[in-house]
Automatic annotation (TrEMBL):
Protein's name according to its UniProt entry: Polyketide cyclase
UniProt feature coiled coil, ranges: none
InterPro entries membership: ASHA1/2-like_C, START-like_dom_sf
Highest taxon of source: Bacteria
Annotated Gene3D superfamilies: 3.30.530.20
Organism listed in the record: Marixanthomonas spongiae
Boundaries of every Activator of Hsp90 ATPase homologue 1/2-like C-terminal domain copy: 14-136
CDD domains: SRPBCC_CalC_Aha1-like_4 (cd08897)
Length: 139
């Protein structure tokens, strides 16, 4: 089996670790920032944040033309430090939360899928992280 290419996206969020962690992990926040563009949204999310726990979210075009479910199972949860999970398509994802003074650097690394160009995947995941940053800094 061929190794999947790793893609990393990141952002530095001007907020404390507690705010960053809660905004990333709580469904009532996830539905407000989890989209790659203004014409998409996440109408529902569920999160069982523990090793072996499952998360799901539904991402949809706001015009109702298309949508998909996104989910997986947590393989590692270290509060305020690291989250790792396996997506339903077996790709691996890690998130590292690094405190840097009054800010937190979020580093997300994921295995590429083979249907879309690497640049498209990177840009899409980066757009979601950028939305997360904007939303979190307004909390």
């Amino acid at each position: 089996m061929k190794n999947k290419e790793q893609i990393t996206v990141q952002a530095t969020i001007d907020a404390n670790i507690e705010t960053v962690w809660n905004t990333w992990t709580k469904p009532e926040h996830i539905v407000k920032w989890n989209s790659g563009s203004k014409d998409w949204h996440t109408p529902k999310a569920a999160n069982d944040l523990r090793e072996g726990g499952r998360f799901t979210s539904r991402m949809e075009a706001k015009d109702g033309s298309t949508g998909f479910d996104f989910g997986g199972v947590y393989t590692e949860v270290i509060p305020h430090k690291r989250i790792a999970y396996t997506l339903d398509d077996d790709r691996k994802v890690t998130l590292d939360f690094k405190e840097e003074g009054d800010s937190v650097r979020l580093i997300e690394t994921f295995e590429a899928e083979d249907q879309n160009p690497i640049a498209v995947q990177r840009d899409g995941w980066q757009a979601i992280v950028d939305n997360f940053k904007t939303y979190t800094e307004q909390q």
